[in-house]
Amino acid sequence: MADIPKTCPRCGSRLKKWLVPEEATWEEEYFYVCFNDDCPYYRNGWTWMRSQFNQEASYRYAINPTTGTCLPLPVWSDSATREMIVEDEEGGDA
Predict the structure, then answer these.
(1) Would you kindly state where each structural domain of the chain is located, as residue ranges?
(2) What is the average pLDDT value for the chain, to the nearest integer?
């Protein structure tokens, strides 16, 4: 398993453990994701997705804990996918 950073390199917020949906094509059980709504990666994603694809969507910074690679996690609102966070604000399991 890769050594996974615990903070977002874009905004410095603590990453949260997020369950990958069963119907997703990813094989991992979870990712680490930045859920800071003020993160520039997330904020700028709205403009980029609109200009490139004419879509009302954005993405959040995520890390695959198996490979250590980062990826964009697509979202359609500020609250989208938050129900899949499995850690509370203090970093413990929810």
Answers:
(1) 16-84
(2) 90
